User: What shape does this take?
Amino acid sequence: MELKRLLALARGDQAADLLLKNAQVVNVFSGEVHAADVAVAGGVIVGLGKDYAARETVDLDGRFVAPGFIDAHVHIESSMVTPREFARAVVPHGVTTVVTDPHEIANVCGLAGVRFMLDDAQGAPLAMLVNASSCVPATHMETSGATLSADDLATLKPLPGVLGLAEVMNFPGVVYGDDAVLAKLSAFADRVRDGHAPGLTGKRLNAYAATGISSDHECTTLEEAREKLRLGLTIFVREATNARNLKTLIPLITAENERRCCFCTDDRQPADLVDEGSIDHLIRLGVGEGLHPVTAIRMGTLNPAEHFRLYDRGAIAPGRRADLVVFADLQSPRPERVYLEGRLVAANGAMISAAPPAPAASAIPAVSAAVHNTVHVDVGKVDLAIPASGKRIRVIGAIENQLITHHLVMDAARDDGRLVADPTRDLLKMVVIERHRGTGNVGKGFVTGVGLERGAIAGTVAHDHHNLVVIGADDRSMLTAARAVADAGGGQAAAEGDTVLALLPLPIAGLMSDQPIEQVRAGMDRLLRAARQLGSALHDPFMAMSFLALEVIPKLKLTDLGLVDVERFELVPLVLND
Amino acid sequence: MELKRLLALARGDQAADLLLKNAQVVNVFSGEVHAADVAVAGGVIVGLGKDYAARETVDLDGRFVAPGFIDAHVHIESSMVTPREFARAVVPHGVTTVVTDPHEIANVCGLAGVRFMLDDAQGAPLAMLVNASSCVPATHMETSGATLSADDLATLKPLPGVLGLAEVMNFPGVVYGDDAVLAKLSAFADRVRDGHAPGLTGKRLNAYAATGISSDHECTTLEEAREKLRLGLTIFVREATNARNLKTLIPLITAENERRCCFCTDDRQPADLVDEGSIDHLIRLGVGEGLHPVTAIRMGTLNPAEHFRLYDRGAIAPGRRADLVVFADLQSPRPERVYLEGRLVAANGAMISAAPPAPAASAIPAVSAAVHNTVHVDVGKVDLAIPASGKRIRVIGAIENQLITHHLVMDAARDDGRLVADPTRDLLKMVVIERHRGTGNVGKGFVTGVGLERGAIAGTVAHDHHNLVVIGADDRSMLTAARAVADAGGGQAAAEGDTVLALLPLPIAGLMSDQPIEQVRAGMDRLLRAARQLGSALHDPFMAMSFLALEVIPKLKLTDLGLVDVERFELVPLVLND
Assistant: This one.
């Protein structure tokens, strides 16, 4: 807005567009909740106080109004829907800005994938800001669909909506000064650079922080978070679908350190977004765990705004974006009205307006083509057999609701000269089939903790390389599930024998549906029912599976190149020679 | 430092330069005080923790170490010494960064004055960062030595050490959208823009804040500070020589809003700098008034660093500048050792090393010439007489330790058809003689609250135009004092009859001495003794006088153009027509 008009509106010399009367303002600057009217015009807040006039007045009758919620770190791809559809899912929950890392699609489609996300977000009723994905591929111990160099990432810097460098997951590369990693840090030296350093401590953590990386969202213990906070990393308290750290970390937070803490969702699946919500859910959980409501709200508003140097939002103050959330209960905020730049976009849990008329990016042929048909696997040629060459094997120990795993050693099960699954001991076979380049790579291993008694599950969502991962009790079921996914051009499936029990197609990069989130959620529910029918007691075995292939989070993971000992950061053999 | 070397140092693979062992670290991130060793190399902190090795180890034996103190807003000219000499005065007090507004010299010498300050600061053991002076002249109701347009100020933006736009004092110009003021705000839209809006409230304050101006250091009441804080202005709590707001404002500060509060000294004279100190003094005062010591230290470290987007300092953390202060008593920090970028620069209240060998800017002829010989007054031609044209007059009511004044109306004193001083009623004559351009302008008025019983005081320090201001009981004394100052090329003087009682020459722009601060302080003491001898009971009548000409601070002020009603923001007649 032209400054003179803004001044005239703030002075009250011109009528505002909208006046929220009789509000209880959650003032994130003063830490108070106080009565005020909020005048809005041209998309920004023009005044707080009394006696403003406006063309439209809404009497909030003592309801609370807080700044729109900001998600400090989220991978939209984990919602399994497009950015526009993601907006439709989170905006009714009061989220008005998300800082996204389009890391998943970048690993499949490279810069074309990032462009798809930016394009698809255009005109959506949500500010989607992008951090450039720093680790594509995550490491050299996997085969991804693309490689992004420092030069590639630098091409993103000038684009509108691009903030900084996303979670630098290759923490050994940082600590030990890998040239390619340092080149990326240097390319974004004048921007915010976010971190990801699970379990890093002591001098190596000092080294990581010394580079200017300024956040971490991977803390799983109080001690870890305390050390990182002391060394200057802003702590993003995460409550994802599979990684739920909030209850563990809330005791860290005091009035004295709260400013260095934010909320983030990282990866949330459709059911959790629909049923629980997004940052609003974290705020409610935080208050339930003992946070002062204003503290919890600051962790989802001002704190991320300050971390990301977004001086135009995160607070209710003159000149800031009129991203506002109205609710009745300060102890458990449930958004009744959500304003984005002064426009009412959601009420009582549902979007108000249809998405604006601009076509979704997926409707643009060139953009669309780049993110479709990304699964290149000839399942008929895949051999899942593992020759028996020893008695004791490394086994991935899955831990419910955690991204980290145990690194176990168990006795192998053998059958006809081969190592096989043994569901009676919850020992399942797991394979990762390279799907981007047709290399024919198949990483093979075993996992415990997933709990299938029979059949198999498969999916092309497999952080971060998103190869085709399959877990099962027998090879036949595994091949059936894998084939169903490959034939759909990506997705997730459950199978038993030759029967596909459930299939959720994810044709966009093998990661996202082109359907509304409710339908995707229904598809997910069918998958989960099938998995439960097959014996798994996990909250979400597909989500769990998708992180068992992520070789940047300890301790033992499987990629298409084989088992990775994350703590040693090297490939290790399946069979122990003892 | 090259990143690979920094990483090697942080990992402990290379020995650091310096290790502060057995420290109690004031951790401004976590709000804790905790034991740690601090390893320093290449001017930055490389690690916090145990087991670092270094070429030099200093055992702090449980002493506290805090980040170097940051003064959020200071006019170095008020120290009456050059920037290099100012550094010598404040660095032993633990101040390692100051954000300065070279506003005084800019009003006298324009951009050449700013250049003098930047050049003179080069190589001094203090980070002097500059905000571009936004109001030169302060208003149209004075004659200054220079005019700086938005285009002029924009030429400063690319210079190293230039941060943003300094205190935008023309708050009516902001609120009512003066084109020249808005042009300056727009020129610095991507930088921090500091505020100055004494007494502004309600919708006009909303307008001021809506422009993106993000601080204020002029709060004189708790209510004023609370309103500004709520509207998003960072509150700089000021404890200057003449404006002492700290005790008034400390009750505002809570754990919940402390992050939005900083300390600043604004204007401190030599005696206060030498005797009380700088930001260290404010921290001690704050703790004495009940602030938690870590809160008080944050207000002088992390908070200003964050406000000014200085991500390289303000905290003890890996990668940040090794600006460090060591002290023994957390309740009353008195710096025992001060490190600037890892170098010990002061110990036990005194500088360690001589200033580096680079010549002071005042030794460079071209720079020096621009800031000398700035007083152009022919005192012999000045007529101080005020014809008696009425009975009741407006009188400036000086308030000790405040920049604001009362706007009084008193009965005039008459003598021989003229309005004269009446020291028996503490009614003194005050004149402001234009000294930059030889216009012959003389603003004339009266003041109460200064308390001279006889004689006069004069000076070329007169915020912000720095014309020659004189206050006295009789015209003869006033002319003597004025002549002494003019003949010295600027300065301050006290006189009685034809006798000069004391004179402090300030040959640099009529504002600063070229002598060490101890000598300037001694000269000031002679002036103050003389003023006391003349009857003034004020702590510092020269400082008080220097702000009685500042027409941006309410309520009644005098410039070379006449009396200014600051609240109406217009020139008003001395004599009332009633």
